[in-house]
Amino acid sequence: MTIDEIRSRWAAGETAWAGWLLIESPAAADVLATAGFDAVVADLQHGSATLHELPGIVAAIDRTSAVPFVRTAWNDPAELMRVLDLGVRGVICPMVGSGGEAEEFVRACRYPPDGTRSYGPIRGAFGAGHEQARKANEDVLLFAMIETAEGLANVDEIAATPGLDGLFVGPADLSLAIGLSSFADLTDPELVKHLDDILAAAERHGRVPGIHAPVAMRAAEMAARGFHFVSCGVDTELLREGAAAALRAVRGAR
């Protein structure tokens, strides 16, 4: 699936599904991508992968129909520019707390005149020269994570940021930040109320609402609620659950 196809899906009110990559392996990225996910997100914040492994991971995803994304470690211009130079076509930026921080994120990811990104793609995803700059500015997808109390309070000004494509909820950090007794529980009425506030802000400003929901049932519920970019499977959990299921089956067969 291309970025244009993902955008078309969103325009039709449909959900794009992402796999979440914690393992620092192109082989693991290939397994997730060939499973049929629309995007695969390499997690540079809490996963094992670093910028060193990212080129191989992006290349593995590029050989499939999935779109390569990253969740960066921080809202750091140097890292943002680097992941884009390595061929990533979607960026999820963590811990965005204000409109100003969202603007800094966007500007680091767009070439002039739209931003301050320096030219020098290692894996030019969109050609070279002016063509690369123009297409990258048009096509690279940028999501600001809403996962802090400050970000939740400022969600409307974050959503209003020019050049931002979407908002992406991190339920675990958001649960901690706002003092919920539950943890990343997408059925908690108080958390769901805040999710609806985020959905409303995204709709007001024409942004794509996204969320991390790695349990299939909850992911389906979030899509039905209105989230159109949902990460619904984490490589380590899928591997652990599959291995445990296989072991239970053979032990139970004796």
Describe the model.
This protein is an alpha/beta fold. It has one domain: TIM Barrel (Alpha-Beta Barrel). Helices cover about 45% and strands about 15% of the residues. An eight-stranded parallel β-barrel has the order 1-2-3-4-5-6-7-8, surrounded by eight helices. Helix 2 runs parallel beside helix 3 (about 55-60) and helix 4 packs parallel to helix 5. The protein starts with a helix and ends with a helix. The relative contact order is 0.12. The mean pLDDT is about 95.
List keywords for this structure.
globular, alpha/beta, eight-stranded parallel beta barrel, 47% helix
Short description:
The protein has 254 residues and is α/β, with parallel strands linked by helices.
CATH class: Alpha Beta
Biggest sheet, in brief?
8 strands, parallel, barrel
Q: What is the radius of gyration? A: 18 Å
Uncertain regions spanning at least 5 consecutive residues: none
**Global geometry:** globular
Indicate the percent of residues in helices: 40-55%
Note the topology.
Elements: H1 3-11, E1 16-21, H2 26-34, E2 39-43, H3 54-62, E3 67-71, H4 77-85, E4 90-93, H5 99-109, H6 129-139, E5 141-146, H7 149-153, H8 155-159, E6 166-169, H9 171-177, H10 189-204, E7 208-212, H11 216-225, E8 229-234, H12 235-252
Parallel strand pairs: 1-2, 1-8, 2-3, 3-4, 4-5, 5-6, 6-7, 7-8
